[in-house]
Amino acid sequence: ENPILPSGPTTPSLAPSAKFLAQLSQSYESISKVEVWTNPSNGPDEYITDIGVVSGNIISDFTAKYSRQTSDLLVFDPLGNLTPKAITSLLAPNGHELRLYRGVVFPNGGYELAPVGVLGISISQLIQAAKTGWATTLQCYDRSRRIDRAGFLAPFQVAAGATGAQAILAILAVQAAWLNASQVIIDSSTNLH
User: Fold this and answer.
1) Mean pLDDT, rounded, for 143-164
2) Which of 5, 53, 91, 146 counts the highest number of beta carbons within 10 A?
3) In what order do the strands lie in the sheet with 53-60?
4) pTM for the full model?
């Protein structure tokens, strides 16, 4: 039986548990959760609500300009409550982000969710689904797209002697002041020279 996921913000660990990884090699029931957050330019991220995504794809391509994006996330909205009506609407491309999670239901009960990505809504398109009424499809990209589009407004110089990780964090502090530095994970084993 699929557990009822609690509504509200999820706080999963960044690394899945051994139990989670072991379950992946066996037959399992999968679950997913999608949360909508706002990311104000001068404050912490704020949880808004959960939404039900029926289908779609998440593409991870670390050779692409933006490493993660979605392809046609389908949100059923038969009553039109989520349908964007203005730029400030929940699913309009106005700075709201989706936090996506994928998980497993364990055979003896319980579940675990793992983060899949934090993606900003880029395109929101209303469609009419054949049997279920109205739906919205979403095209989303990871935060690197927002950082890329910000551009440098003034010359920037990395401090002499800074490590690669320190340089990245310094650049993000200027280019993406809205980004919570505690959410940035830098693989220190990567040679940044």
Assistant:
1) 80
2) 91
3) 46-51, 29-38, 96-105, 111-129, 133-142, 68-76, 53-60
4) 0.74
